[in-house]
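Researcher: Please translate sequence to C-alpha cells.
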Amino acid sequence: MDRREWMRRGSALGALSLLSGGSIISSITAEEKAKFNPRDLEYPIQLNFNENPFGPSEKMRQAMVDAFKIGCRYPDTYSQELLDMVSEKEGVPRDHIVITGGSTEGLKITGLTFANNGGEIIAARPTFLAMMMYAKQWGATINWVDLDESLTHDVDEMYRRISSKTKLVFLCNPNNPTSTILPKEKLLDFCKSASKKAIVFSDEAYYDFIEEKDYPSMTTLVKQGENVIVSRTFSKVYGLAGIRIGYLIAKPELANTIRDNVVAYTNVLALKAAAAAMQDDEFYQFSLSKVKACKDIMYSAMDDLDLEYIKSSTNFIFFKTGRDINTFNKQMLAEGVRVGRAFPPYTDWCRISTGTIEEVQYFAEKLKKVLS
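Model: Translation complete:
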C-alpha cells in the first residue's frame, strides 16, 4: 500500500446519498434540536475552528441558568464538584488536577512556567501553536521538528533533539491540523523515555474522537509518576468552546507549580456547565455520531474528486487541494464556506472542520464546484 492509498483508506463510499439533487436535507428532529442545540445554518458557514456545531446541550444550559444565582460568588468554592468528577473519570487524586480557562490556558501557563528565560520546547511542525507562541513571548526557544512522511510526529527525531536545555516536549495527539495519531506502543515508549529527560506535555483535546480500540491516554504515565502533563478540554466533544473550561492532569509536584501560575481560571457558570456535560452521555454520544457522519460525507466528496486526505482521528479532516491554500480559501469563501488557514509547509493542504449535516452537505457541494 503506497502513501497516497494509505491516507485514503477507509473512505465512506456512498455517504453523499444524503444529498438529493444538490438540495440540503435536514437531519435533526425537533426534539434533538431542543436537547442538543445545533447552530443555525448561516452563511458564510464557518468550518475553520474545529468547533462542535452542537451545544451547549439542554442540560448544560439549565445548569448555567441555575448557576446565575451564585454569580456573585468566587468560583473556588464551587470547583469541588467538578474536581471530584474529573478525579473519578481520570482515576487520579484531586491534587493531580488543575482546572483552567479552557485547555489553551493550560498550554500557555505550562510553557510560561517551565520554559521561560531561554528554556527550550521541542514541538512538531505543524501543530497547535498556543504553548509555543506564548512561551516565546517570555523568552523560550522553540526547536521545531518536521512531521514524518505520514504527517505524524517524528518522535524518533524529537527524542534525538532532547538536550540539557530542553524543558518541555510538546505532543498534540491527535495532531492539529493533520488529525493523525501515533501508534499506541510508539506513543507510550516515547513518552516514557522522553519524560526521563524533560517534561512531556500531551495535548489530548481531540482524544474523544479516536476510534481505535483501547488507545491510551498519557494519563496512564501520570499515574506511574512520570514527568508527563496531559491537557483535556470541554470545548470539542462537549460543545463548550465559548464557555472556556478545561483541565490539566499531572503529578502533584508539577500540578502545584502550574496551579500557582493560573491567570484566567474560570467561572461558576463554566464549572456547572462542565459538571453537567460530564453527566450528559446522550449529548456526548450524539456529538460523536454526528462527527462520524459528517466525516463520511466529506470523505465521499473527496473520493469523488480523487483528493488525497488523511483518515481523521479528530473532528476535522486534512486534505490536499492541489492549489495554494490562500487561493483555495478565497474560492471557498466566495461560495459561502470558511475553511482552515495555512499550515506551512503544507501550503496546498486544507483543514476542514465538521459541522452540522446541513453545513457539511453544503461544503461537499461547493468543494466539487471549486475543484472540479
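Researcher: Any highlights?
Model: The longest strand covers residues 166-172.
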